[in-house]
Design goal:
The complex is a heterodimer of chains A (426) and B (161).
Chain A (H helix, E strand, L loop, with lengths): L2 H10 L4 H22 L7 E2 L7 E3 L7 H17 L23 H10 L83 E2 L10 E4 L2 E5 L7 E2 L18 E8 L14 E6 L7 E7 L5 E8 L7 H8 L1 H5 L4 E5 L8 E4 L4 H8 L3 E4 L8 E7 L4 E7 L4 E5 L4 E6 L1 H14 L3
Antiparallel strand pairs in A: 1-2, 3-6, 4-5, 5-10, 7-8, 8-9, 9-10, 11-12, 11-14, 13-17, 14-15, 15-16, 16-17
Chain B lengths: L1 E2 L2 H22 L3 H17 L7 H19 L8 H9 L8 H9 L3 H12 L4 H8 L3 H19 L5
Helix pairs in contact in B: 1-2, 1-3, 1-6, 2-3, 5-8, 6-7, 6-8, 7-8
The chains are: A alpha+beta (426), B mainly alpha (161).
C-alpha cells in the first residue's frame, strides 16, 4: 500500500453539503442574534455580543448569499417567534452548544444529557484563544467531578489493599479543562468498598527526615508528590505509614531524630526496626511515639543503596511479595499536551511474571526514549515502585531510594512493552 | 470587539472543511458525532477572538481544536459497530476493495495512533509539525507512527505500507 492511498482517502472525507449549509446558517443565526442584542442593525456591521466573548461580525461587501439569506430568515423569524434554542443564552452554554445538529428535539436532548462534553461553551472573557495555545475553549463545569473528593483520606492500619480492578479507581476519568487549558490533576476516586486511595503531599521540609544509622544515611521514603498511595500520607505523624505491623522485623537499634512529625514526640530517641523479608540496608521501619504513647511507624530508605544486578535488587526488596498484591499501573509520559496518560492492565499476572524474570547489570544511564513507565503499587508500604522501560533494553527502577538503571535483555523488555501495548487500556 | 468577515468565514470553511471533518470522522467512530464536532469547531472559530499570524497558524488551530474537541467529545471512544462503520465509510465513495479496507483499519487503531496517522499520512504533515500540534515530542510521534504501521500491517495482513 502506498501513501497515495491515504491521500486519496483524505480527499474523499468531506462533510455533506447539508452539514456545511447548516453551519453557515447557524453562523447566520448567531450573527443575527448578535445584531439583535447589540442593536446595531442597519449600521453596516453586525455586532455580536455573545454571552462571554463579545465578538462582532462586520458585514463585508462580499457577504455570501447563503449567509445573508440565512440571516434574513433568522432575523425575520426572530422578530416573530423569538429565538429559542439557537440563540446563545446567558448561561454557560454558548453558541457552539447550540450548534449540535438539527435533528429531532428528542435526539438533541439525549445527546446533551448523555454527553455534557459536547456542550462546548466559551471561556471567560479574560481568556482569549490564541494560536499559540490552540486549545479550544469551553465551560469546564462538567469536568472531573472527582475534584470534589478529598485528596487524602484517613484510614487505620487494618485497611486492606483494594481488590478492585484498576479501571474502577477513576484514574481513567480525565476531562480536559478548557478554562485552564489543561487536564486537572488527578484526584482519587473511592474504591468500591468506600476507601479512597491517598495522594502523598509534598513536604516543605526534608531535613528532619534524614538520620544516620550504622554508617548509612536513611531518608523518609514517601515517594514523590502526587504519587498514588494506598495508605494515608496526609497529616504525617498522626497515621502510620506501614499499614501492617506484622511486617515489622527485629529491633536494630536506636537513633536520634529531631522529629517534626506532627504529634510525634520531638527529640525522643527512635527505634529502628528491620522489615521482614526486606534488606535492612535498604529499607527500615522507624518507630516513633506520639504524645499518647502510641507507636507510629515510618518507612526510611538508604538513598545510596544499589545492587549490581536487577535480580539482586528484587531480592533485597522482596519485590514479588511487596508488589503484586495490587494492580500494576502503566503510565506513559509525554502524552497529550504533556499530560501523563494512564493505562491499565486488568490481569497483570503475565506482566508480573515477565518483570520478575527480568535481570541485568547496573548501568550508568538509560539510552533512548522511555516507552512506558510502570507503577507497581505496594500496598504493604503505602507506596509504589516505578519501572521505566526503554526500547534498548534499559530498565530504570525507582523504589524507595534512588533510581537505579539496569541493562537488561532487550527482547525481554520488548516483550513487556508489547504486553502493555496489547493489553493496556487507556 | 472582534470583527469577523462573513465571507472570510465561508472561505475558511470551504478551505478547511475536509481537514476538520476528516480528523473528526477518523477520530470519532460516528458520522453524527463528527458532524457535531465539525460544527462546534467552526462555530468556535466564528465566535472567538482569534488572531492568526498566518494561514498555517489558523490551520494548526483548527486541527488542534478539532482533536481536542474529539477527545472531549468521545473520551471513552465508543465501541465500533463494524457494519455501521463500513456503511459510513462507503458513503464517502471510497474504493471498496482497497481504500475502504485501509481506512477501516485506520479507524480501528487506538485513538492516539489514529490522530498521528491522520496528521502524518493523510494530511501529509511533517513529523515535527504534527508532533507540535499533538503536543508531543517528535520522537514520540515517530514511535506512534511506527506502532500504528505495525498494527495496520497486522490488520491488513501483510500489505506493506
Amino acid at each position: 500500500m502506498k501513501r497515495d492511498v491515504f491521500e486519496r482517502i483524505e480527499k474523499k472525507l468531506e462533510p455533506q453539503d447539508e452539514l456545511v449549509d447548516r453551519l453557515l446558517e447557524k453562523a447566520g443565526e448567531l450573527a443575527a442574534q448578535n445584531a439583535l442584542k447589540s442593536g446595531n442593525e442597519g449600521k453596516g456591521e453586525i455586532s455580536m455580543e455573545n454571552n462571554k466573548t463579545g465578538a462582532e461580525i462586520k458585514r463585508g461587501n462580499g457577504l455570501a448569499v447563503s449567509l445573508a439569506a440565512a440571516l434574513a430568515v433568522i432575523v425575520g423569524a426572530t422578530a416573530i417567534f423569538g429565538i429559542k434554542a439557537s440563540v446563545p443564552s446567558d448561561d454557560e452554554n454558548s453558541a457552539a452548544h447550540s450548534s449540535v445538529r438539527q435533528n429531532s428535539a428528542e435526539q438533541d436532548i439525549v445527546r446533551e444529557t448523555s454527553k455534557p462534553d459536547t456542550a462546548a461553551g466559551e471561556p471567560p472573557e479574560t481568556q482569549t484563544a490564541k494560536p499559540e495555545t490552540s486549545a479550544p475553549e469551553a465551560s469546564a463545569e462538567e469536568t472531573d467531578s472527582s475534584s470534589e473528593l478529598p485528596a487524602t483520606w484517613t484510614a487505620g492500619p487494618e485497611t486492606p489493599p483494594p481488590e478492585e480492578s484498576a479501571e474502577d479507581d477513576g484514574r481513567a476519568d480525565y476531562f480536559y479543562d478548557y478554562e485552564r487549558q489543561e487536564y486537572p490533576v488527578w484526584q482519587p476516586q473511592p474504591f468500591a468498598d468506600g476507601t479512597i486511595p491517598a495522594i502523598a503531599e509534598e513536604s516543605p521540609v526534608s531535613e528532619y527526615r534524614n538520620f544516620e544509622f550504622n554508617g548509612k544515611s536513611y531518608s523518609f521514603a514517601c515517594g514523590s508528590y502526587n504519587e498514588v498511595y494506598n495508605q494515608v500520607l496526609d497529616g504525617i505523624g498522626t497515621e502510620e505509614n506501614i499499614p501492617n505491623e506484622s511486617y515489622i522485623g527485629e529491633l536494630i537499634g536506636n537513633a536520634e531524630i529531631p522529629s517534626e512529625f506532627g504529634e510525634i514526640r520531638e527529640n525522643e530517641p527512635i527505634e529502628v526496626y528491620s522489615l521482614k523479608y526486606i534488606d535492612s540496608d535498604y529499607l527500615v521501619a522507624v518507630r516513633f511515639l506520639d504524645f499518647n504513647d502510641n507507636q507510629r511507624y515510618f518507612l526510611f530508605a538508604d538513598l545510596s543503596f544499589s545492587r549490581e544486578s536487577l535480580q539482586q535488587l528484587f531480592y533485597s526488596m522482596n519485590f514479588e511479595k511487596c508488589c503484586f498484591n495490587g494492580n500494576a499501573i502503566m503510565r506513559r509520559k509525554e502524552e497529550y499536551a504533556g499530560i501523563e496518560d494512564y493505562c491499565f492492565i486488568g490481569d497483570d499476572s503475565e506482566l508480573a511474571q515477565m518483570i520478575l524474570a527480568l535481570d541485568g547489570e547496573l548501568a550508568d544511564a538509560p539510552s533512548g526514549e522511555m516507552v512506558w513507565q510502570i507503577f507497581l503499587d505496594t500496598p504493604l508500604f503505602g507506596s509504589s515502585l516505578s519501572f521505566k522501560l526503554y526500547p534498548d533494553g534499559y530498565v530504570s527502577v525507582k523504589a524507595f531510594g534512588a533510581e537505579l538503571t539496569y541493562r537488561c535483555d532487550q527482547s525481554a523488555v520488548e516483550q513487556i512493552i508489547s504486553c502493555i501495548d496489547q493489553n493496556g487500556q487507556s | 470587539m472582534h470583527t469577523l468577515d462573513a465571507a472570510e468565514f465561508e472561505k475558511t470553511v470551504a478551505k478547511y472543511k475536509r481537514t476538520v471533518y476528516g480528523i473528526a470522522f477518523t477520530r470519532l467512530n460516528d458520522r453524527q458525532d463528527a458532524d457535531d464536532v465539525f460544527q462546534e469547531v467552526f462555530l468556535l472559530y466564528f465566535t472567538k477572538e482569534l488572531h492568526f499570524e498566518n494561514e498555517e497558524s489558523k490551520r494548526a488551530w483548527l486541527i488542534k481544536t478539532t482533536i481536542f474537541k474529539c477527545r472531549q467529545f468521545n473520551c471513552g471512544d465508543k465501541n465500533i459497530d463494524r457494519e455501521k462503520e463500513i456503511e459510513q465509510i462507503a458513503a464517502f465513495g471510497l474504493d471498496p476493495a482497497e481504500e475502504t479496507a485501509v481506512y477501516a483499519a485506520v479507524k480501528r487503531l487506538p485513538p492516539k495512533y489514529r490522530e498521528a496517522v491522520y496528521l502524518h499520512y493523510f494530511l501529509g504533515m511533517p513529523v515535527i509539525e504534527a508532533a507540535e500540534i499533538l503536543d508531543i515530542k517528535p520522537n514520540t510521534l515517530s514511535m506512534r507512527l511506527s506502532r500504528a504501521k505495525k498494527l495496520l500491517k497486522k490488520e491488513l495482513e501483510g500489505d506493506s505500507l
